[in-house]
Amino acid sequence: MARTRQYRRHQRERVISRKSRISHSLYGRGYYRHRGSYSKGKIHCSCWMCRESDYRGRHILDRGELRSMIKMREQLGE
């Protein structure tokens, strides 16, 4: 099935609105100067706070991983 221009525009606008909403909720402002830049890829910078690893390359645990480790430790303690 061939995709129409209308379909591609709709998908692009959907991605742009989602990423701009995330950016505004995290940073309180837009991350990019132009709205169309949100369709290109990432919505975060490459600083040590936004990456999943620290500057030495070690993995930093996110909230879900920490929660599962805590649950596992509680189960072992029982």
Would you give an account of this structure?
It is a single chain. The chain is mostly helical and about 80 residues long. The N and C termini lie far apart (about 55 Å).
Q: What's this, in brief?
A:
With 78 residues, the chain is mostly helical. The protein has helices spanning 5-27, 63-77.
Biggest sheet record:
none
The 3D shape can be described as: elongated
Query: Taking Cα atoms only, what radius of gyration do you get, to the nearest Å?
Result: 19 Å
Provide the β-strand percentage band.
under 5%
Number of strands: 0
Number of helices: 2
Query: Low-confidence runs (pLDDT<50, min 5 residues)?
Result: none
Q: Can you give the helix content as a percent range?
A: 40-55%
Distance between the termini: 57 Å
Task: Give helix and strand order, one letter per element, not per position.
Answer: HH
Q: Which structural category fits the helices and strands?
A: mainly alpha
Q: State mean pLDDT (0 to 100 scale).
A: 79
Name some characteristics of this structure.
0% strand, 2 helices, mainly alpha, 78 residues
SSE inventory with pairings:
Layout: H1 5-27, H2 63-77
